[in-house]
Specification:
Layout lengths: L34 E4 L1 E3 L2 H6 L3 E3 H13 L3 E3 L1 H8 L9 E7 L3 H13 L5 E4 L24 H9 L3 E4 L12 H19 L5 E3 L7 H9 L4 E3 L18 E2 L4 H9 L2 H19 L1
Helix pairs in contact: 2-4, 6-7
This protein binds zinc ion.
Length: 282
């Protein structure tokens, strides 16, 4: 087996310093990695306040600056995969920034800032490349938002952003019969390969809708990682097919608190609140 890369490959745009962990002897994952979840990065303050899926571009700027000041280095799932195989040494404080759905504002607003801070990210896009806006939100009265086209996704990819799959058309996979769920998962992978020449290794469950069957289909499709929203163990490495993410809201303090308080404490607090609620309801 070749020696692991001694230095984490240079960020595509360097303006920070990174220190590096030593590789675990067995080459297996032994450090925790916070995984952040974004959807839209917009320049409309009112909309950013009203919609939990939106973060204002100025807040995103401050959040990235904070991550940099706190010594985080943004890695991708591909980096982590190499690390698991003993081929790459991770930075001292790795973090994964994920952005869902492939909105146009990922290209226009998020990418320039990611480049500025030398941060990489994982962007989950739909396999149905004929989808030009968030059609799946229509019935909820959410205004249409444009999605990136193939050229824009390829430009992201060339800038070092990892592209992951997010099903074909954004259904809740846990509600679909097996054949339909398989097509949504498997075809989203092959279409990204065929149309963009990108082989995704990470999948993201739309709405966080996951079941044991859905998880199995994702594994059988050849993905190595899958992200949920609110489910999954508190620690990243415990289930790479149900990776719990930190929802980043339009507040700097919110992200700061989420990074300071370990996920297992947050999960414990949430469970406590739910339990208390059940007791008072009875
Ligand atoms: Zn989504």
């Amino acid at each position: 087996m070749p020696e692991p890369t001694a230095i984490y490959k240079e960020p595509i745009h360097t303006n920070g310093t990174a220190t590096f962990t030593s590789l675990p002897q067995n080459g297996k994952a032994d450090i925790d990695v916070p995984v952040l979840m974004y959807h839209r990065i917009i320049d409309n303050r009112v909309a950013a306040k009203d919609n939990w899926l939106c973060v204002h571009v100025d807040v995103f700027d401050k959040q990235l600056r904070m991550l940099e000041l706190w010594g985080y280095s943004a890695i991708t799932f591909s980096d982590y995969y190499l690390y698991m195989q003993g081929k790459l040494i991770l930075p001292r404080k790795p973090i994964i920034i994920t952005i869902d759905d492939g909105y146009l504002d990922t290209y226009t607003h998020a990418l320039p800032l990611l480049k500025q801070y030398g941060m990489r990210a994982v962007v989950f896009v739909l396999g149905d490349r004929g989808l030009h806006y968030n059609k799946w939100d229509e019935h909820k009265g959410i205004p249409p938002a444009a999605l990136m086209n193939n050229n824009q996704i390829l430009e992201l990819y060339r800038e070092g952003i990892e592209i992951g799959a997010h099903s074909l058309s954004h259904p809740d996979l846990s509600c679909l019969p097996k054949e339909k769920a398989w097509k949504e998962i498997n075809r989203s992978k092959t279409l990204l390969q065929e149309e963009l020449g990108i082989e995704p290794i990470a999948f993201c469950y739309p709405y966080g809708g996951v079941s044991p069957l859905v998880k199995q289909l994702v594994q059988e499709s050849g993905f190595q990682f899958a992200c949920s929203v609110f489910s999954g163990p508190a620690q990243f490495r415990k289930d790479l097919f149900e990776i719990r993410r930190i929802t980043v809201r339009n507040k700097l303090t919110d992200l700061a608190l989420r990074l300071m308080i370990p996920q297992k404490i947050i999960t414990g607090l949430r469970e406590g609140i739910r339990k208390n609620k059940r007791i008072t309801e009875h």
